[in-house]
Design brief:
364 residues, binds nicotinamide-adenine-dinucleotide, alpha/beta, two-stranded antiparallel sheet
Length: 364
């Protein structure tokens, strides 16, 4: 039995709807196993810009610093803050959290549930047995490199973004991937574009050097374009995929389709900071604020709920509790309940709150 402090940042759009169900499941775990999860909520994204003048306030950053983990929904979805001329972008909340808290390793497990194989656009026989983990570098590369700007020249406008990685940044994310592979099927696929990019050549060289310290783990190199193809051609051949920030961003949205819906995939963002319970981390579903369905109780809360399982596993070392949540999700899906995004003949479509309630009940 333990006491854990969690900062809850539901955000915008469907964020509050799915996080409400994630917290319901978290508190069900508390009562079943005798833990105390102290949750403190704060604003991020559009709601924070409008109420507090920034996508994440200093007070909310302090709250996160003092917590054992962060549960995050999604931000964005208001066109007035998303144009190229918007002064404060809602996504700044995430970038600040990742950068200031040094959360450089984003873990995205992809394991389609057996009962959902037919919900994917990929053939069930290709998906059968798929179980891999994408480790995406989160605080470097094109999304953070400077300069990044649109410039006026005598010939009109041009624009520049900067893809820069230090060897130390590459090495630490590769080590994370190799360590994780050791606890799995001992294979790492390092994804780069070494035939074109200098940053990728440094990446590949570093991967070969780091691999020497892990003789029990097999290293495979793949070019990112080939990886995009193999993800849907032979998804079962992957165990741990490690890649830089933008490649990981794109490949994981592609990979989400193996699981049937964006609404099924959780993620964890970790660094090296330790708390009294384990590794500090930020946990969020991979999807965005889905403005097209927000406020209608149509969102699938399973990604957010599985995010809680990742938090229990990685930040609190509560493996049994994490397994129980994953089993409860599988039980409810096996019983034929689906949210709108997974609608299939012969299943019962339920609303967001109902899905959360069914999963919480399965836990008891
Ligand atoms: P999105 O992930 O919000 O939605 C893409 C599609 O998937 C939509 O059709 C949506 O209805 C559906 N979808 C997503 N999550 C779902 C769920 N849980 N259940 C059922 N269906 C779901 O991506 P988008 O439409 O490109 O972006 C919308 C906004 O979200 C943008 O402002 C974008 O910047 C923001 N965004 C935020 C994050 C984040 O906070 N981490 C991530 C991605 C996008």
């Amino acid at each position: 039995m333990g006491t854990y402090a969690i900062a809850v940042l539901p955000g915008d759009g469907i964020g509050p709807e799915v996080i409400e169900q994630a917290v319901r499941v978290l508190q069900t775990i508390a009562s079943r196993y005798g833990h105390t999860f102290t949750t403190t909520s704060a604003l991020v994204g559009v709601s924070a810009i409008e109420a507090e003048g920034d996508a994440i306030s200093d007070a909310t950053m302090n709250l996160c610093q003092q917590s054992d983990a962060i549960l995050f929904g999604a931000v964005g979805g208001a066109p007035r803050y998303e144009g190229p001329n918007a002064k404060i972008q809602p996504a700044r909340a995430l970038f600040r959290l990742r950068k200031d808290l040094e959360l450089y390793a984003n873990l995205r497990p992809i394991r389609p549930l057996q009962a959902l194989l037919n919900a994917s656009t990929i053939k069930a026989e290709v998906l059968q047995g798929t179980d891999f983990l994408v480790v995406r570098e989160l605080t470097g590369g094109l999304y953070f490199g400077k300069p990044s700007e649109i410039r006026e020249t005598s010939q009109g406008y041009d624009a520049i973004d900067t893809l820069i990685y230090s060897e130390a940044e590459i090495e630490r994310i590769l080590r994370t991937a190799f360590e994780l592979a050791r606890a799995r099927r001992k294979k790492v696929t390092s994804v780069d574009k070494a035939n074109v990019l200098s940053s990728s050549r440094l990446w590949r060289r570093t991967a070969d050097r780091v691999a020497a310290a892990y003789p029990d783990v097999t290293l495979e190199h793949l070019l990112v374009d080939a990886c995009a193809m193999h993800l849907i051609r032979r998804p079962t051949s992957f165990d741990v995929i490690v890649t830089e920030n933008m490649f990981g961003d794109i490949l994981t949205d592609e990979a989400s389709m193996l699981a049937g819906s964006m609404g099924m995939l959780p993620s964890a963002s970790l660094g090296t900071r330790k708390t009294a319970h384990g590794l500090f981390g930020l946990y969020e579903p991979i999807h965005g604020s889905a403005p097209d369905i927000a406020g209608q109780q149509k969102a699938n809360p399973i990604a957010a709920i599985l995010t809680v399982a990742m938090m229990l596993r990685y930040s609190f070392n509560l493996k049994q509790e994490a397994d129980a949540i994953e089993a409860a999700v599988e039980q409810v899906v096996n019983a034929g309940y689906r949210t709108e995004d997974l609608r299939e003949a012969g299943t019962e479509v339920v609303r967001t709150q109902e899905m959360g309630r069914l999963i919480a009940e399965a836990l008891l």
